[in-house]
Specification:
Blueprint lengths: L1 E3 L7 E3 L12 H18 L7 H17 L7 H14 L8 H18 L5 H18 L4 H10 L5 H13 L3 H7 L19 H9 L18 H6 L5
Antiparallel strand pairs: 1-2
Length: 237
């Protein structure tokens, strides 16, 4: 994986399809790549085949296809970067359909699932999220891909379970699905209501029913902490 200056695009993106054992890609390089693609995606917009995001999709697909076609396992960071890029921009490729992109991601997820390596949990989580994004932008998923999501909804990893269940529920409400997972929203600013004021009505209704209000613990670190008193309040079986 490399980034280098290019007179035409400002940079040149190259991803070696060779699956010979190599060191894990540098984290900072992967982060730089994803940042560049996110910014380029906001500008490309049209998804033209000459766009760097579309080229990145094709290169990551080349690597996934070779790996799925009898190649070795890919480095974790590369899998996670591929999942993010394909989930965000998988529909921008001029040479692959969204369903082809989903099929390759699903095939790699199957390999992780049957590999018995719990350390690859984050790879599986990100692939499921990529499939969820592509389902929203492509208008649905069916066949083996949907079966895979249904099977993974019973996975031992609770995070994987949740992502699959959310995908299955949202797929029953296409309008909500698209609103929750808009296309190319990587650079959108999200306003966070830290006070959670949208829950006020719910809290007040619960209080009127006699439910106790939340009483946060005293987190003032300047006060002395009596460890013995704290331990004495705990019950050990």
């Amino acid at each position: 994986l490399s980034l280098s200056p290019s007179p035409g695009l400002g940079l040149s993106l190259s991803l070696s399809p060779s699956l010979k054992p190599k060191p894990e890609p540098k984290l900072h390089l992967v982060q730089d790549l994803l940042s560049i693609l996110a910014e380029a995606g906001a500008e490309d917009g049209d998804g033209g085949e000459e766009g760097i995001c579309a080229r990145a999709v094709d290169m990551f697909m080349d690597v996934l296809e070779e790996s799925n076609d009898g190649g070795g396992a890919l480095p974790d960071l590369l899998v996670q970067a591929a999942a993010w890029v394909l989930g965000e921009y998988g529909t921008w490729s001029a040479s692959r359909s969204a369903h082809e992109v989903m099929a390759e991601l699903a095939a790699y997820a199957e390999r992780i699932r049957h590999g018995g390596r719990s350390a690859r949990g984050q790879n599986l989580r990100m692939i499921v999220t990529a499939l969820a994004k592509l389902t929203a932008t492509a208008g649905g998923c069916a066949g083996r891909i949907r079966e895979l999501i249904e099977e993974l909804s019973l996975h031992s990893d609770v995070d994987v379970q949740q992502r699959c269940m959310e995908m299955l529920v949202l797929s029953q409400r296409p309008g909500v699905y698209v609103a929750v997972m808009p296309m190319d929203a990587a650079c959108e600013d999200i306003e966070v209501d830290e006070s959670l004021s949208f829950l006020n009505d719910f809290v007040e209704a619960a209080a009127r029913r006699g439910m106790p209000r939340y009483n946060p613990p005293d987190l003032d670190s300047s006060k002395p902490h009596d460890a013995a008193a704290a331990l004495s309040s705990l019950a050990f079986a």
